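Repro:
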Amino acid sequence: MKQITIYAPVQDGIVARITDTLGRAGINIESLDAMDVRDLDVITLMVDRYDDALQVLRNADFNAISEDAVVLKIKDEPGALAKVTKRLYEAGIHVRSIRIIHRGGHEGLVAVSMDRTVEGLAAIKDLLLSPGS
């Protein structure tokens, strides 16, 4: 799965401009996280038409970059995410971003972008729920 991250100097209305740009292009936003980090606005998106969204945002002069993210199915219980992140840390995997994208029943879906995806998945495979769980 791909996600788009936009970095920009802190500015009022940036999320409104991004969402308007994508809406006018007919692109559906599936998830959006926005935060101030020091002197930067950092906005991370997942959309229904990734390639189109990346091009539209770049054409509108947003500093939009691409990242791979994996969606993990974990138990929906206190401490489950902590086990995943601790294991990644202990394996020396740098987590670039992490987002809870769904909770329901006894499971949750978490999107994680990390520097070494294959090694990261190997480090946490026993913590993941199988598709039939």
